[in-house]
# Entry
Amino acid sequence: MTRIVVLTGAGISAESGVPTFRGADGLWEGHLIEDVATPEAYERDPDTVLAFYDARRRALRTVVPNAAHLALARLEGAIGGDLLVVTQNVDDLHERAGSRNLVHMHGELRRALCLACGSRPAWDEDLIDRPACPDCGERMLRPDVVWFGEMPYELGRIENAVVAADVFVSIGTSGAVYPAAGYVALASAFGVRTVELNLEPSDAAVPFDDARAGRASELVPAWVDEVLSARRAGAERR
Ligand code: OAD
# Structure
């Protein structure tokens, strides 16, 4: 059985209408990264940071998964636990498309993190009004998103899956943020075949074995079809 690890970034959600991070002007929806995505920014000006993520959480209600998210869910439906999707995205479009074997390494907009008790409750409302934590009652909830300088989630699980995979596929990510940006080098070092599906080739430190340029909504379904027909052909030969 072919084991596949897929890493996704903002590019897979772009065609759903979720903005990517690195526009030409280096701003995130009009904000400097260091003003909204660092622990220091939150210490300095929590209202600005909470309002920024509240707006992004609300915006999720207006978007739906696209053909790329749906194709990955279709692949999981066919090969089950042989596929792990690791996303850097904090939106919920993979799970809404049907992906279940999924890691949100940079956290989730629809979850809060309690700075008092450490719980991570599912969260759909605004945080700016300092609601109480459902677990401990303290009013110290922040978005459960990983900021610059913080440790992403489940790194051990991800690295173990990458090195044990047959194929590592990177979709819609610029390869600018580590540790995710290093997974192609890790995969290559362990002899794992690497594939990139991105609007334009990224600046990966190690070249992909197969780099395809185009829109995720076209490239991902086509790649999933290829994987499934290769598996069918393999099964028929046996
Ligand atoms: P970026 O905004 O850096 O990169 C998005 C990538 O998607 C670019 O390489 C685009 O070329 C590509 N792209 C855009 N539209 C596409 C489409 N329709 N089809 C395919 N590809 C397309 O976003 P990420 O690489 O995800 O981290 O950024 C990584 C991390 O940086 C984010 O998770 C976030 C940010 O800092 C944290 O918040 C910790």
User: Anything to note?
Assistant: DSSP finds nine helices and eight strands in the chain.
